[in-house]
Write a structure and sequence with these properties.
The protein has 308 residues and is an alpha/beta fold. It has 13 helices and 10 strands.
Length: 308
């Protein structure tokens, strides 16, 4: 009872105040929300692109009602600067309806929507709860893990998986080269190392030193190389030893690629958490809008992506 009272009277208001200050104060928060609403509206009327043709580029994203318009902008800005036909594979978190998929299908007719029921059927077939209780519990209660499980479970072959909150401003040659000839795992570079777990424990479980700054806003993995028994063991052990973490998915992938030769997106071109002046000028190839950079994303950068 006292814990709930403390949460209600102290911790929650304090966290909201910290969020407000980090996001620039009440006035900037209102501007950000207005920008977010305008971005969502703009996603419904983005102009169709006219790609040069060739083999469609397959890109995998998890999305839903809250993020569909970010997914649209991510794919549209990627396609605009590559000139490639896209064949997006969209994993529905269970909240997509025709209202939200209409813009995706209008812009990218080769889009395939993977229904939540289809994903659950594959999970039951390849990650049954009786054998993988930790991963299945996380799938239910920690949506980030779905960016790892949903594209790769029961499937082999290299896949490029993107977060929805990315925008492209230049031709992403690094990603195109990887897509055309993938031969090793690929990941982005973080603005700071964020795994949520102690390095000694992660190193011990991985059997190799875990690299710094692995970011999974964009990843390239081959489902045939994923050891799901190992991931179940790691997930169970990390949580038993050091509790749950928002960064679990990132920690797991960092452990998976530990000791491997990876393709790493150039940090100066593929920026995680852009800040001014870069967040205003958008000179990099790509931005990944995490944490306080959402302010620039919603107020400014999506408008730049329309014109760049």
């Amino acid at each position: 009872m006292l814990g709930r009272l403390a949460l209600h009277l102290y911790h929650t208001p304090l966290n909201r105040l910290r969020d407000c200050l980090r996001e620039g104060g009440p006035f900037q928060q209102r501007r950000t929300e207005h920008g977010r609403s305008a971005m969502e509206q703009a996603a419904r009327s983005l102009p169709p692109l006219h790609p040069a043709g060739g083999i469609p580029a397959e890109i995998h994203l998890l999305t839903g009602r809250r993020f569909w318009y970010q997914t649209v902008f991510c794919l549209w800005s990627f396609a605009r600067h590559t000139g490639r036909t896209l064949a997006p594979v969209i994993y529905d978190d269970g909240t997509l309806t025709g209202e939200f998929t209409a813009s995706l299908l209008r812009l990218f007719p080769q889009t395939r929507i993977v229904a939540k029921s289809e994903t659950l059927a594959r999970l039951d077939a390849f990650l049954p709860i009786s054998r993988y209780p930790a991963l299945r519990e996380r799938w239910l209660n920690y949506p980030n893990i779905r960016k790892l499980t949903d594209p790769h479970i029961g499937s082999a072959g290299w896949k490029l998986v993107l977060d929805s909150d990315l925008l492209f401003f230049r031709r992403p040659d690094f990603l195109l080269n990887w897509l055309d000839a993938p031969d090793r795992s690929m990941h982005a570079v973080d603005c700071q190392t964020s795994y949520g777990y102690s390095r000694p424990l992660m190193n011990q479980l991985a059997g190799h030193p875990v690299a710094n700054l692995v970011n999974v806003g964009l990843t390239g993995l081959d489902g045939a190389h994923i050891d799901w028994d190992q991931l179940e063991h790691w997930t169970h052990t990390l949580q038993i030893r050091e509790s749950t973490s928002y960064y679990l998915e990132q920690a797991l992938i960092a452990m998976m690629v530990a000791g491997r030769d990876c393709s790493i997106a150039p940090a100066a071109d593929y920026i995680t958490l852009p800040r001014p002046p870069e967040a205003l000028h958008c000179r990099a190839v790509m931005h990944h809008y995490v944490a306080e950079s959402k302010r620039w994303y919603f107020q400014h950068c999506w408008k730049v992506a329309l014109k760049s």
